[in-house]
């Protein structure tokens, strides 16, 4: 028969490095086979100290200020002061028999990654019954502080001869997992279905019950803490307890935001870009954000990493094998061994999140992804209710990072979301869309067509409620983006007729109608149309329409003249598009639903009161090479904090969060569309500090 034993093993749950602990009081043990046939494990739960840690950050190999590389990122962060990131409510303990006497950093993961699949030798579940949980980041120093008995069901009897067991833990699963996890393989491959934060997961201030699991088997502390191994025999009584430790990490990650100090209730953004059509013609302020592509699918309970690749531009092959020297799959470290002078060569690996293999570039258009992400990258983002205002007055949560002396505002927890190198595209990667407001100054000017002439000095009629357009244009020498007063002007500007040279009033004839003062010949018309810009879709379609009218023309007849007009072009469009184009004299009447079709069909961006949107894709490892995608560059990994510092803008963003015709799920995250300057950092919580974001 099985016998009862008392195991008093101090199991320190360390979320980062070290910290204080507190008691599990008034809790309940879940047993089996009535109340017998059990041993008891005394568990001490401890998490990183409450508040920013005082331990020095590691020296980041990334000295250029981008998000740090590999396992340790840019260093560590403590838990949010006074919040619930370290609260423990229930614990699952799993013991596996081993012939190893101790563990070191060289071999501490060998058992978990072995080919054998032993059954669980002992298991236990402890449920804190008070409802308040245990704040393991606070506590005292009295003897045995934080120690409470967890009843362990042993599968075989213990005698006087000690046996060694490796110890694994899952925290805050919310249920006893003994029937779901009966072997080592079932443990290491266990998948957490659904949320990784049981309560208020979308509310940083009140989030609670963070799912956690073992992330290593030895500590980095000096002097060293107990490894996750324990020697048990019948001699281990309450008066002679065995001791061990388990180290856990959260399955969630966190996004933190900071920005320039608000002045008069506004967050100013740096702006100085000669290539912007509004350079030195106004100022920008940060007003809101939307966190997009938040993974909502399952999460692997225990972190897994891939074999290495020798270039940061490589994909992981699906049949890749682990080579000697590679980190072990289960709980192995992230690797980013790289000398920037050798780019892109080095040694790199991937974190294998749930659905990593299924998230391919070829499958990004699959409709299933929309249901697996919150705020998925599609037209649903254009709902104004999805934009959150920048926290200005008494934000619910904030902290100061002593490394960079910036005050950060945690905005959301997210789940692990990692991708192969080529799959780092807008349809998969987690990012932020920032909303900004452009306020014109007295130097703000627009291009306007009036009565046969084009002026570049048009001004706003109202600086409080205003609209304007932007579109690309080729003037015969270079491509440029221009600011327009109305839609008709975009079409008129397509004609690259030099100022003072339109002696026959050709532009007026085409844009207004062929009156007697228009004396252009058929040759004049053909020459003008041939020289039209086609840099935006409105120019392109207008030119194509006019060319079609001329395709068989030999004479400039009255009938042909009636067709060779902007009005004729508008009348040839789809009925819904005609309605939009005909609002050129009442631009403020354009609705939000019409902004998308205008951009998609004509390449014209409509801005109301200077409001625009800027996409930023969150970096995990920064290869410091714009336009070159890197391994694990745009990914989210558990227990990491992604610090975003929004510093400035390069100009106007997009007219909508998701602009039809421009935004596509398969667009690579490394592209030319970056218009915001953001810096990211990540800590243990592993901190990853992205470079200052210029929108």
Short description:
The protein has 695 residues and is mainly β.
Folded structure, characterized:
- The chain folds into 3 domains: 213 residues, no CATH class; 209 residues, Immunoglobulin-like (Sandwich); 142 residues, no CATH class.
- Helices cover 11% and strands 28% of the residues.
- The chain has 10 helices and 38 strands.
- Strands 16, 17, 18, 25, 26, 27, 28, 34, 35, 36, 37 and 38 form a 12-stranded mixed β-sheet that branches.
- The longest helix has 14 residues.
- The N and C termini lie far apart (69 Å).
- The N terminus is likely disordered.
Calculate the mean pLDDT score and round it: 85
Count of separate structural domains: 3
How far the N terminus sits from the C terminus, by CA atoms, comes to 69 Å
Rg over alpha carbons: 32 Å
Q: Counting H and I runs of at least 4 residues, what is the number of helices?
A: 10
> pLDDT below 50 for ≥5 consecutive residues: which ranges?
1-27, 29-38, 46-59, 138-147, 678-683
Residue share in helix: 10-25%
> Strand count, sense and closure of the main sheet?
12 strands, mixed
Shape: elongated
Strand content: 25-35%
Q: Label the structural class.
A: mainly beta
User: Would you count the extended β strands for me?
Assistant: 38
Topology:
Elements (H helix, E strand, L loop, with lengths): L4 E3 L19 E4 L7 E7 L42 E2 L1 E9 L23 E7 L5 E2 L11 E8 L8 E9 L12 H5 L2 E2 L4 E3 L8 E3 L1 E5 L12 E4 L14 E4 L1 E8 L7 E5 L10 E11 L1 E2 L3 E2 L8 E3 L24 E2 L7 E4 L19 H5 E2 L13 E2 L9 E3 L4 E10 L15 E10 L5 E5 L2 E6 L8 E8 L4 E6 L2 H6 L13 H7 L9 H9 L6 H14 L7 H6 L2 H6 L3 H7 L10 H11 L2 E4 L2 E7 L22 E10 L26 E7 L3 E5 L2 E2 L1
Parallel strand pairs: 1-3, 16-35, 17-35, 35-37, 35-38
Antiparallel strand pairs: 2-6, 3-8, 4-7, 5-6, 5-9, 6-8, 9-13, 9-14, 10-20, 11-12, 13-15, 16-27, 17-18, 18-25, 18-28, 19-24, 21-23, 22-23, 26-27, 28-34, 29-30, 31-32, 31-33, 35-36, 36-37
Organism: Parabacteroides distasonis
GO cellular component, one term: pilus shaft
Pfam families: Fimbrillin_C (PF15495)
């Amino acid at each position: 028969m099985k016998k009862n034993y008392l195991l008093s093993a101090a199991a320190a749950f360390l979320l980062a490095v070290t910290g204080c602990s507190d008691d599990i009081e008034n809790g309940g043990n879940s047993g089996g086979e009535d109340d017998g046939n059990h041993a008891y494990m005394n568990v001490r739960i401890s998490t990183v100290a409450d508040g920013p840690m005082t331990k020095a950050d590691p020296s980041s190999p990334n000295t250029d200020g981008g998000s740090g590389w590999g396992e340790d990122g840019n260093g560590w962060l403590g838990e949010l002061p006074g919040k619930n990131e370290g609260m423990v409510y229930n614990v699952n303990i799993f013991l596996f028999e081993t012939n190893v006497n101790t563990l070191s950093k060289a071999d501490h993961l060998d058992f978990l990654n072995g080919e054998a699949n032993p059954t669980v030798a002992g298991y236990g579940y402890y449920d804190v019954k008070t409802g308040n949980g245990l704040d393991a980041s606070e506590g005292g120093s009295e003897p045995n502080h934080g120690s409470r008995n967890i009843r362990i069901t042993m599968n075989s009897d213990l005698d006087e001869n000690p046996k060694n067991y490796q110890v694994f833990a899952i925290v805050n699963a919310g249920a006893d997992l003994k029937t779901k996890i009966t072997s080592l393989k079932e443990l290491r491959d266990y998948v957490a279905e659904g949320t990784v934060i049981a309560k208020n997961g979308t509310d940083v201030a009140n989030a609670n019950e963070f799912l956690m699991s073992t992330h290593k088997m030895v500590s980095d502390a000096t002097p060293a803490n107990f490894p996750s191994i324990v020697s048990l025999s019948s001699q281990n009584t309450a008066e002679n307890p065995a001791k061990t430790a388990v180290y856990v990490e959260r399955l969630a990650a966190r996004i933190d935001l900071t920005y320039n100090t608000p002045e008069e209730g506004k967050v100013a953004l740096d702006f100085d870009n000669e290539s912007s059509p509004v350079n030195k013609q106004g100022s920008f302020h940060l007003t809101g954000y939307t966190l997009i592509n938040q993974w909502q699918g399952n999460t692997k309970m225990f972190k897994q990493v891939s074999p290495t690749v020798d270039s940061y531009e490589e994909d992981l092959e699906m049949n890749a094998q682990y080579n000697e020297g590679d980190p072990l799959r289960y709980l192995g470290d992230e690797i980013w061994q790289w000398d920037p002078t050798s780019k892109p060569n080095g040694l790199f690996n991937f974190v294998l999140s749930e659905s990593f293999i299924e998230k391919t570039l070829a499958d990004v258009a699959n409709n299933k992804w929309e249901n697996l992400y919150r705020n998925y990258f599609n037209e649903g983002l254009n709902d104004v209710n999805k934009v959150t205002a920048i926290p200005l007055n008494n934000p619910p949560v904030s902290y100061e990072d002593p490394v960079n002396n910036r005050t950060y505002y945690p905005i959301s927890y997210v789940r692990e979301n990692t991708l192969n190198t080529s799959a780092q595209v807008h349809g998969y990667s987690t990012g932020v869309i920032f909303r900004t407001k452009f306020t014109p100054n007295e130097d703000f000017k627009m291009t306007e067509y009036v009565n046969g002439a084009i002026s570049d000095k048009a001004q706003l009629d109202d600086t409080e409620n205003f609209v304007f357009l932007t579109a690309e244009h080729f003037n015969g020498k270079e491509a440029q983006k221009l600011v327009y007063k109305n839609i008709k002007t975009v079409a008129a500007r397509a004609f690259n007729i030099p100022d003072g040279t339109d002696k026959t009033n050709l532009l007026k004839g085409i844009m207004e109608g062929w009156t007697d003062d228009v004396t252009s010949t058929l040759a004049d018309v053909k020459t003008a149309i041939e020289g039209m810009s086609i840099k935006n879709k409105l120019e392109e379609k207008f030119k194509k329409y006019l060319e079609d009218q001329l395709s068989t023309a030999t004479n400039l007849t009255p009938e042909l003249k009636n067709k060779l007009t902007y009005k004729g072009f508008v009348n040839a469009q789809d009925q819904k598009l005609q309605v939009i184009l005909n609002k050129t004299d009442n631009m403020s009447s354009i609705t939000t639903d019409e902004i998308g079709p205008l951009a998609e069909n004509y390449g014209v961006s409509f801005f109301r009161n200077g409001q625009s949107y800027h996409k930023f894709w969150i970096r995990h490892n920064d290869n410091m090479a714009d336009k070159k995608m890197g391994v694990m560059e745009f990914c989210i990994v558990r227990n990491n904090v992604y610090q975003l510092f929004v510093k400035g803008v390069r100009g106007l963003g997009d007219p909508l969060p998701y602009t039809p015709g421009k935004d596509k799920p398969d667009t690579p995250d490394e592209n030319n569309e970056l218009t915001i300057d953001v810096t990211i950092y990540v800590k243990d919580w592993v901190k990853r500090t992205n470079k200052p974001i210029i929108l």
